[in-house]
C-alpha cells in the first residue's frame, strides 16, 4: 500500500505502529520529514509548530547541531563497548553530570545513576531496585508495589501493573501483588486552577489505608508521577506529595517519582522533586535526558538505596539487572550535549519565566465551547473537553486534527488536549498555540 501520492512516499504496510490506530492512520497518514527549532515540516511541505516537544521530550527544540555533532564524533571514537563488566569513560562522565543536578542532600541525594534505554525500562528498573533493596536490608516480605489510578509508567509488565490505565492493562496479565491509590483528579473541588490545586492532599492517606489493608511489611515501594502527564495532565494538590513522602518514610516504603515527563526542566526546575521540595528514594527519567534524540533513560537512586546493595563479596554482581545498551556511548554523548545546552541557555529558568504567560494564554481558552477544565503547571497544560455522548475521545481527536491542519501539533489523550512545548518557545508562539486551539474548538464544536 502506498497511498501517499507524493514522490518518494514510503510504503506503509510493514511498519506496525505503536499506540496508533494503524488502519485509520494508513488511510490518511501524517508524515513529518524534518524538524528545526520549534517546527516540524510535513511531507507536503507545511510547517507545524511543535506544541508538545515531540512526546514530551524535545525540551531544547529540534535539530540541535551540538547534539548531532557530539553523537557523530562519539560513534567514530567508540561506537559501542560491552556494558557488563566493562566500562567506557563517557558513561561515568554523564553520571557525574547527572549527580551534580540530582535532588536531595546527604545520604538521600539521588546521585547514583543506573542507565536504561527508555521510560518503561527506567520504571521496571526502579521497581526491581526497590525489591532488591528491601531484600538487602532484611525486608524480603516487602514485595508489594503500589501505583495509582490513571498513572502511566510505560509498557513493561512492571509499568502496566503499577499503572492505572485500563486499556493498557486489560489485555495483559499483571504482576501479582500490586495495588493502587486513587488518582488526584477532583473537578468537584478543583477546576480551572493555575498551578497546584488547594484540595486533595488527603488523597495521599490512601497509602495509609493500603498499609492497614495489606500490612506495611508487605509493601516495597510506591510509585507516582509528580504530574501525571499521559492521562490528562493531573497536577498534584498542594501538600499531597509531601504527605505521601511522610507516609512512605513512616512505614519503610520506598517512594519512587516517575519523572520521565517532568524531568529536565518541564516545570521550571531540573526535576519536579526540586519544584515541590519533596525528595523520593528513586527517580525515573528518560525523554528530555537526550532531548529526545537517542533513546536513553536513567534511574536516579539515593545513596542509601545504592549503598545497601553494595555489600556482600567484592567479586559478586550486586544487581542482576542491566541492558546491552545501558550507557550506550552515543546516548551518553547525546545526554551530555543536551545538558550542556540546557545549562548554557538557561532553559530550565526560561521555562519558569514563561510560566505566567503560558498559564494566562492557555487559561484564556476557558470560555471556548466544551472546555470543562484547564490545568497548568510549568510549561505543561491539560485542556479537558466534555466527551461526545456517543464516543469518548472523538472530540479531542477532531481538535488534534484541526490544529495539525492549521499548523500546530497538540497531543490528545481521551478528550484532554495535552501541551508541553519545547522550553525554547517564544511568547508569540505561545499565543499561536492558544489561538489555533481556540479556533479549532470553535470549529469542532
Ligand atoms: N513514565 C512516564 C511518566 C511517561 O510519561 C512515559 C512515556 N510517556 C513512560 C514512563 C514510558 O516511557 P517510554 O515510552 O520511553 O518507555
UniProtKB/TrEMBL annotation:
InterPro entries: Aminotrans_3, Aminotrans_3_PPA_site, PyrdxlP-dep_Trfase, PyrdxlP-dep_Trfase_major, PyrdxlP-dep_Trfase_small. Its EC number is 2.6.1.18. One of its GO terms (molecular function) is pyridoxal phosphate binding. CDD domains: OAT_like (cd00610). One of its GO terms (biological process) is biotin biosynthetic process. Keywords: Aminotransferase, Pyridoxal phosphate, Transferase. Its cofactor is pyridoxal 5'-phosphate. PROSITE patterns: AA_TRANSFER_CLASS_3 (PS00600). Belongs to the class-III pyridoxal-phosphate-dependent aminotransferase family. PANTHER family: ADENOSYLMETHIONINE-8-AMINO-7-OXONONANOATE AMINOTRANSFERASE (PTHR42684), BETA-ALANINE--PYRUVATE AMINOTRANSFERASE (PTHR42684:SF1). This is Beta-alanine--pyruvate transaminase. It comes from Amorphus orientalis.
